[in-house]
């Protein structure tokens, strides 16, 4: 199943991190968060991606055009104009990637509508280019197929801004740093979508996925929910970037399901 990733936003709340690059190219552990998302999908067998780019889309294109060169040591022979990869060709990938310039000011639903030209089947997966989780994508797909609805959204519990204390009288019995709150459900992305949803939309760059697609589908009874109680974290602010970076550096990134 193909995966469409929303990669075109400005990411202004990340400040200087997105002055020269789009938010999905902000790095966690030395790799763009976009790379982490794609590695996650690939582990479940999804290797064909449509990147709905916009703001600073040339940065995404440069990264993938030069992926092998950036990921390995090089031997350059100027006399013969040859370049050889050294170091065992680390981090090789086998993905098929379409990078589509869907417009700098285009909103989310319009980006996905424009991506349909590169979507081959009736059903595809999609998510935002700034969020990580450990959802079981196989279970998500099965849930969607059995629901009989046009779309499925993954519902997640947001993480707390603060550490959570377990108390017994005047004693602290446990301390969990920034856990999932367990209070309410929010849209966590990681969608399964039918292309007809977007085919019926007008060609309007101001259409959003949330207001112009998900809300009408909910009213029509065509939006299914897949509840995910595990890890989920978006990267909207520097604090959230540092949180994800700390997970990675500590060797306990929940989304790292690959070896």
UniProtKB/TrEMBL annotation:
Gene Ontology biological process: O antigen biosynthetic process
InterPro entries for the chain: G1P_cyt_trans, G1P_cyt_trans-like, NTP_transferase_dom, Nucleotide-diphossugar_trans
Pfam family of the protein (one): NTP_transferase
Keyword Transferase: yes
GO molecular function: glucose-1-phosphate cytidylyltransferase activity
Annotated Nucleotidyl transferase domain residues: 5-232
Gene3D superfamilies: Spore Coat Polysaccharide Biosynthesis Protein SpsA, Chain A (3.90.550.10)
Keywords: Nucleotidyltransferase, Transferase
Protein name in the entry: Glucose-1-phosphate cytidylyltransferase
Keyword Transferase part of the UniProt annotation: yes
Organism: Sphingobium xenophagum
């Amino acid at each position: 199943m193909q995966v469409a990733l929303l990669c075109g936003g400005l990411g202004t709340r990340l400040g200087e991190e997105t002055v020269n690059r789009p938010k999905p190219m902000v790095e966690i552990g030395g790799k763009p968060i976009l790379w982490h998302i794609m590695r996650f999908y690939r582990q479940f067998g999804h290797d064909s991606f449509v990147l709905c780019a916009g703001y600073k889309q040339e940065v995404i294109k440069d990264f993938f055009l030069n992926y092998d060169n950036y990921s390995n040591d090089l031997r350059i022979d100027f006399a013969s104009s040859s370049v050889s990869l050294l170091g065992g060709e680390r981090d090789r990938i086998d993905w098929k990637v379409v990078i589509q310039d869907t417009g700098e000011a285009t909103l989310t639903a319009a980006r996905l509508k424009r991506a349909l030209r590169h979507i081959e089947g009736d059903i595809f997966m999609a998510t935002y280019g700034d969020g990580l989780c450990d959802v079981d994508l196989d279970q998500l797909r099965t849930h969607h197929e059995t629901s009989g609805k046009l779309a499925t959204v993954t519902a997640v519990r947001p993480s707390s801004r603060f550490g959570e204390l377990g108390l017994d009288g005047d004693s602290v019995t446990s301390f969990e740093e920034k856990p999932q709150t367990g209070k309410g459900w929010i849209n966590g992305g990681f969608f399964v979508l039918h292309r007809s949803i977007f085919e019926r939309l007008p060609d309007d760059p101001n259409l959003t996925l949330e207001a112009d697609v998900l809300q009408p589908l909910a009213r029509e009874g065509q939006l299914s929910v897949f509840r995910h109680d595990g890890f989920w974290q978006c990267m909207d602010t520097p604090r959230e970037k540092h949180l994800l970076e700390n997970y990675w550096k500590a060797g306990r990134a929940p989304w790292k399901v690959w070896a």
